[in-house]
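Continuing from the previous page of notes. For each protein in this section, the sequence appears first, followed by its structure tokens. Read the first protein now.
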Amino acid sequence: MNPQLILKDLQYTVDDHALLKDISFEQDSIGITAILGPNGAGKSLLLSLIHGLIAPSAGTLSWSGQPAKTSKQDRSYVFQTPVVMRRSVLDNLIYPLKISKTPKPEIQRRATEMLRTARLDNLATHPAASLSGGEAQRMALARALITQPKTLLLDEPCSNLDPASTKMIESMIADFTRQGGSVFMTTHDLAQAKRLADTVLFLDNGCLLEHRPAISFFAQPKTPRAQAYLAGEL
């Protein structure tokens, strides 16, 4: 069963400036949720709060009744710029399993499977720092998946990638959800959101203006700001 995400009156303030304002919604984390909005809307900030990387200034956020900070074991987070350790591709992948003291046979099984899934099996012994942008992002996603999370949080997972790399990343994301996982992702690529998203959270100026099924959001956005955003006017 996927955890339920509940936000109530969530705020995040820096130097008396509210970057996120009174955000409230409830959602069973099923399928893919795209977090959309113009630059500076608060998308990446909300994603960080959802995962528990930072704490809200006010309000509450919980996963199935548990605070985000203390319930991270079922979630994995992938940053817009992949985190690459100065090790081989294989060592980067298995690092989180070693930290969690996963048995060696299980580490080997999962690593072999994820290298194949990410199409990195021919690069397993290569230095991770030598990977292209698309390869590094696939490695980061594979490293997130290897821990077998229930939920993935992705910050612009295909930013600045070529179409072929984007297609591979999207395929990995779709496979994860078909196996029962859920995804929260920020993206500026509206075509990508239309292809992948089941639900949309639309932010503008730190406010949550729409939380709707993706098909109805794209067909008929309710708010003028969402209409302007989809028309390319923001």
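Done with the first. The second protein uses the same format. Note its length before scrolling.
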Amino acid sequence: MTTVRHHTREIQGRQVFYREAGDPADPTLVLLHGFPTSSAMFRNLMRELSDSYHLIAPDHIGFGQSAMPRVDEFDYSFEKLTEITLELLDSLGLDRFALYIQDYGAPIGLRIASRNPERITALITQSGNAYMEGFTPFWEVLFAHANDRATHEPAVRKLLDIEATKWQYTHGVPADRLPLVSPDTWTLDQSYLDRPGNKEIQLQLFADYKVNLDGYPAFQKYFAEHRPPTLIAWGEHDEIFGPDGARAYLRDLPDAELHLLDAAHFALETHGPEITALIRDFLARTLP
């Protein structure tokens, strides 16, 4: 294992934080995190893979150590986060790369992939939804909020409390794996959520998430037409993006490799070694 390096780079006048590991001469894997976490979710995976791959894991604007402008100072939309991410990758000179997408990382990464298919060497999706089948009852209040923010905001704000953050890490986790989930995970995430103004940022992104569904046909067309090598490593007990969302990928990517793990939403916390082994095997066969 090698060390992880920590950097910031100015993109569109905002400081974007990213973690880097491995040799830039090796094939690059870009890791895109979800809600409510940050690039910290990849801390162990980066060390494990850095002997063979060059890894880049940014914090989205409003998350982790990246800039956190107020909602009236920045367009908090998935389209804008995509733009920032792509400009970061361009500034780092990354012309070709594989993508690991999880949760919010999926609509960002799949915008990049579907618009720049020639740059994508492979896809790894872990609870990174691209099909309607993946949505569980968890989303009912969020979609209601997108249609009527004033009425549903009190209910949605509860998703920003510590109990909900802890639940994201612990729901569906087998009892024998639960001790593997460090309380540091949800404590760190909550510390970022509790910064003044951050909950307003998250509410704005909650409301914007529904717009991503309009992009699903383009994502699915990209899958069907370009057939990127794809690894699906998904928690079978995920109550946010259910396993039907994983299976749906096979409709457009029949050669994709599907692995439903005895895990939940943050599968890296409980099944890190298993996912690492799957990635090593997959990329060794896939990348030049």
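What the second structure shows: The first strand starts at residue 5 and ends at 11. The CA atoms of residues 114 and 219 lie 6 Å apart. We return to this in next week's lecture.
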